[in-house]
Amino acid sequence: MPIVRVEMWTGRTHEQKAELAKEITDAVVRIAKTSADHTIVIFDDIDKSNWAEGGILASDHK
Amino acid sequence: MPIVRVEMWTGRTHEQKAELAKEITDAVVRIAKTSADHTIVIFDDIDKSNWAEGGILASDHK
Amino acid sequence: MPIVRVEMWTGRTHEQKAELAKEITDAVVRIAKTSADHTIVIFDDIDKSNWAEGGILASDHK
Amino acid sequence: MPIVRVEMWTGRTHEQKAELAKEITDAVVRIAKTSADHTIVIFDDIDKSNWAEGGILASDHK
Amino acid sequence: MPIVRVEMWTGRTHEQKAELAKEITDAVVRIAKTSADHTIVIFDDIDKSNWAEGGILASDHK
Amino acid sequence: MPIVRVEMWTGRTHEQKAELAKEITDAVVRIAKTSADHTIVIFDDIDKSNWAEGGILASDHK
């Protein structure tokens, strides 16, 4: 039943996402006592031009 | 006032979304007693390579 | 696989949510060709003091 | 620590987002007493074909 | 049409939210050329026991 | 920079969340090559009466 949503800057590879999905699911199943089949992990790639910290878009940081 | 967000795998057609938007809005208006004009439905197409169940990305499922 | 999220003002009854969950799931299954078992509907009750339109919190509207 | 998420139709320019990120961050820092460095603003461009009001996709509105 | 979502730790007053809603809406209307009536701002108060940075829940930070 | 959001049914203890926050952050840092300080994990406890699968609210499942 848990839904995990991971927002990261664009650029992670398929392998990184596959490994993250596996490790996060393992942690959720082990710690929160759920079943893997009911654990959903969703990745949301966000472009640096759509992400600001300190009031400045990450794509504009020097 | 209600906002409905539908996350589905990429691949639904414009017609399917138009029909879903209409039926979901109708249900919300009828059951939750809101007005259609204030009901927003947003679709979020998620690639199978960004969606994992059972710790495995959907694009890697055989 | 679809996840539907419904944000509404606090105040809908259990019966209204149960009926909405059923009708939205039926629409998604029928139109988007998914299975009901893999369709998740989540309700998020939002207090009027946390929701603004026109720059004014709904709890402050006369 | 605040995270601000702005969902708008596709079409805003980089300059508009940069200005919005700055003004929203300024407002959050000043009013909510946080630090700019810990304020994140994320933009989510949503296509009109994925956004419905009144049960009709915005891309289908005449 | 824009929807702005502000996630902050629990503790902001009604006055702070009212002021933030007004200023954010003003900025969105002015910069993104939308109308105030179609701009929604939603606040999501998150308890420190539900928010971690550096792998440590904020409620556990010394 | 990554933001991880975990939606689970109400009922997980503070200890479970603390452990999950730590393990998820570790995984994100190690696999996605980010720094722990910039990794945020947010938990969202969802009541079973607000979560439906198969068109039926979890609180109504026998």
Characterize the structure shown.
6 copies of one chain form a homohexamer. With 62 residues, the first copy, chain A, is of the alpha+beta class. Chain A has a domain at 3-45: 2-Layer Sandwich (Macrophage Migration Inhibitory Factor). Chain A is built from 1 helix and 4 strands, in the order βαβββ. Chain A has one helix spanning 14-32, and strands spanning 3-9, 40-46, 51-53, 56-57. A two-stranded parallel ribbon of chain A has the order 1-2. In chain A, strands 3-4 form a two-stranded antiparallel sheet. The radius of gyration of chain A is 15 Å and the shape is elongated. In chain A, 37% of the residues are buried. At the A-F interface, strand 1 and helix 1 of A face strand 1 and helix 1 of F. Strand 2 (40-46) of chain B pairs antiparallel with strand 3 of chain D.
Looking at this protein, list some descriptive labels.
two-stranded antiparallel ribbon; homohexamer; alpha+beta; 4 strands; 62 residues; 31% helix; Macrophage Migration Inhibitory Factor
